[in-house]
Specification:
about 425 residues, mainly alpha, Growth Hormone, Chain: A, 18 helices, about 80% helix, about 0% strand, globular, disordered N terminus
């Protein structure tokens, strides 16, 4: 029986149009995404090599208290939140996300210089603040560049490849710091010099190689000027469309129950009592798991649906909490926690950016990405502070069990709230 093309499209167009387009479109990875991944890899080698030795440097070499380090770690978690929305807005307003990203990467590089001369609490706190503000400035414009360069039907996979390269650096950084300290006892300044070198190379690659993709696209399309800017575009109510408001609200709720890697590692150390000098290698394990699973889970998100993969990542986090609390012990339990923590990041980090990119209007993409990233940073900063208090009041095991119980309730609630949101499969 003959069925015309118009009949084929009639009743199933809404459900199959995107799938049909994806089936005819082969995946092509833009060189822009590869170069941005290399920039992030170099920058993460820089930042994570310094971060891995910071606890020992502050409390051991400088002789500051753990309270002082707690304040510095809080700055490390949340300082970037104060500029993320603004940086995304400036990216949208100017139409030059690369310039905004260069400013952020450059600020973080400049902060690295300070580590070579810092000698007290205020100096270290100022350097960490500058570094994290630089991270807050660069993240949304960088993700806007990735979104502009990626094929819409393969957004999650494109972000996953970027995050995989990023986490090669995140795994290599602590390993480099560990090896330097093994070869040069108290060689903290050597680590900081290496950190600065990688940051400078990353900025150079961004400036010299990465194009301002959004600007180039506009020129190719024949655009002669940007649309007139309206202040209402900065308002949250203007962004709260097509499920974006629900997505950001759920992200904030789940972020409040994400206690952070450091506390998970402290739980493991509290149970296993391994030597302190091996502590940085826990970061390596998590980041190796992240980079191994980033691309497979990104592909799965494009095929199965981005919301289900995002929520499944939080289920992995829940199992990680349970495994860290149970009195199982041994190397297998520790490796299991690191594996699950890596799966959590692989299933949520790039996938969240892909979801926001899918929902946000193109002219407000940077602002939307900055908003989501700000909510993540603030909620996780609050989670760290609250969990530290719970640890003090209830003890480590009871505190982690409490958070695990709340997360077990939050994930099904999040699934209900996000039901019908974007994130259905779009790739074959």
């Amino acid at each position: 029986m003959y069925i015309s093309m118009s009949d084929r499209k009639g009743g199933q167009q809404d459900l199959q149009e995107t799938d049909g387009r994806a089936a005819l479109t082969a995946f092509r990875l833009s060189p822009v995404i590869i170069w941005l991944g290399i920039v992030s890899m170099l920058t993460d080698i820089s930042s994570e090599s310094a971060a891995a030795i910071l606890p020992l440097y502050v409390t051991g070499f400088l002789g500051l208290s753990t309270i002082a380090f707690g304040v510095i770690d809080g700055i490390n978690q949340g300082a970037s939140a104060i500029v993320r929305i603004g940086a995304g807005w400036v990216s949208d307003r100017t139409g030059h996300p690369k310039r905004v990203a260069v400013a952020g990467y450059g600020l973080s590089m400049a902060a690295r210089v300070g580590f070579l001369f810092a000698g007290g609490f205020w100096a270290i706190a100022g350097i960490v603040t500058g570094d994290r503000i630089g991270k807050g400035i660069r993240t949304a414009p960088r993700d806007a560049l990735i979104s502009a360069a990626a094929q819409p039907e393969y957004l999650a996979r494109s972000f996953a490849i970027h995050r995989m390269l990023d986490n090669i650096g995140a795994a290599a950084g602590p390993l480099i710091a560990f090896l330097i300290l093994m070869l040069i006892p108290n060689g903290f300044n050597t680590v900081f010099v290496v950190s600065l070198a990688f940051a400078a190379i990353g900025v150079a690659v961004l400036v010299l190689v990465v194009p301002d993709k959004i600007k180039v696209t506009a020129r190719r399309a024949g655009a002669t000027s940007r649309p007139a800017f309206r202040w209402y575009r900065l308002k949250w109510t203007y962004l709260k469309k097509q499920g974006l408001g629900r997505l950001v609200a759920v992200t904030g709720l789940l972020g409040l129950l994400t206690i952070g890697d450091g506390f998970v590692y402290l739980l493991l150390q509290n149970r296993e009592a391994f030597a302190v000098q091996w502590f940085p290698l826990l970061y390596v394990g998590t980041n190796v798991a992240f980079l191994v699973f980033a691309v497979p889970l990104g592909r799965l998100a494009d095929r199965w649906g981005r919301v289900p993969v995002f929520l499944a990542g939080h289920v992995a986090l829940l199992v990680c909490y349970v495994l860290a609390v149970l009195p199982l012990g041994g190397t297998a339990a520790t490796l299991g926690c690191l594996l699950l923590l890596g799966v959590f990041y692989a299933a949520t980090d790039g996938v969240l950016s892909a979801l926001v990119s899918q929902l946000a209007p193109p002219e407000r993409l940077g602002t939307a990405l900055g908003t989501a990233q700000t909510v993540v940073a603030l909620s996780r900063m609050a989670a760290a502070a609250c969990f530290g208090l719970l640890w003090y009041l209830l003890g480590p095991g009871a505190a982690a069990a409490c958070v695990a119980g709340l997360l077990a309730l939050a994930v099904p609630a999040a699934a209900v709230v996000l039901r019908g949101s974007a994130g259905r499969p779009v790739a074959p």
